[in-house]
Amino acid sequence: MKPFLIAILAAVGLTTCACGGGSSPNAQATHTVTVTASSPAASQSPAATPTPTTGSTAAAGCLSRYLHGSTGLSQGTAGALEIVIVFKNLDNVPCTLYGYPGVAQAAGTPVTDIGQPSTENPTTKRTLVTLPPGGYASATLQITDAGNYSASKCQPTKATWLAVIPPNQTVPLYVPFTSQACKSMSVKLLSVTTVSAGNGGGPG
């Protein structure tokens, strides 16, 4: 009986010693890995998520209801007419325009678009334009001469308005302007540049 008890006590003692003697190195290794893994992430965090400053916040986009549209300078080119379209900020706070307006020739009561709307003229780069209260931006519209096409293909008709949709808006501004349009959807007469700062040299 005694030898059996001595054997059990000896086994328990060996197990206790093994557990107690191995705990310290393992704890130290775990601590070292944790410090090494967290350090690079902490150093990269500020660069990955910069904090924006108040001064870098852009003004809100210009809404159609706070813009006045008009035509500025116009000049004839070979087989086309170029017209400056001017936007004026009527609001008492700054706003921004970016990209291409949409333009269509129009006529009638109520005003109805005629033919194909404008395509984008890539000669100017997209630039964020800030309009202060009372400030101006402009884009250049080119209208190809409807006479370049046969009457059967063009289906010519008189337009008395330009329906101008400011960039990133859906509500048009109706600008009085008389021009020759094509009712046919197979003919594209209009192309327009991106908006840029200023009134394009006209009075606005």
Distinctive features:
204 residues; alpha+beta; Immunoglobulin-like; 2 domains; 4-stranded antiparallel sheet; disordered N terminus
Structural commentary:
With 204 residues, the chain is α+β, with helices and mostly antiparallel strands. It has two domains: 2-51; 64-197, Immunoglobulin-like (Sandwich), CATH 2.60.40. Mean pLDDT is 80; it is low at 1-55. The longest helix is centred in the first third of the chain and has 47 residues, at 2-48. The strands form three sheets. Strands 1, 2, 6, 8, 11 and 12 form a six-stranded mixed beta sheet that branches. Strands 5-4-9-10 form a four-stranded antiparallel beta sheet. The chain has helices spanning 2-48, 151-154; strands spanning 67-77, 80-89, 95-97, 102-107, 112-114, 119-120, 129-131, 136-144, 156-165, 173-182, 190-192, 196-197.
User: In sequence order, what are the helices and strands, one letter per element?
Assistant: HEEEEEEEEHEEEE
Report the radius of gyration as a whole number of Å.
36 Å
Overall 3D geometry?
elongated
CATH class of the largest domain: Mainly Beta
Pick out the low-confidence regions: 1-55
Number of helices: 2
* Distance between the amino and carboxyl termini: 113 Å
Q: In percent, how helical is the residue content?
A: 25-40%
Q: Could you say what the CATH architecture of the largest domain is?
A: Sandwich
Quickly count the domains: 2
Mean pLDDT across every amino acid position: 80
Please state roughly what percent of the residues sit in beta strands, choosing from under 5%, 5-15%, 15-25%, 25-35%, 35-45% or over 45%: 35-45%
Topology-level CATH name of the largest domain = Immunoglobulin-like
Biggest sheet: strands, sense, closure? 6 strands, mixed
Secondary structure category: alpha+beta
How many strand units?
12
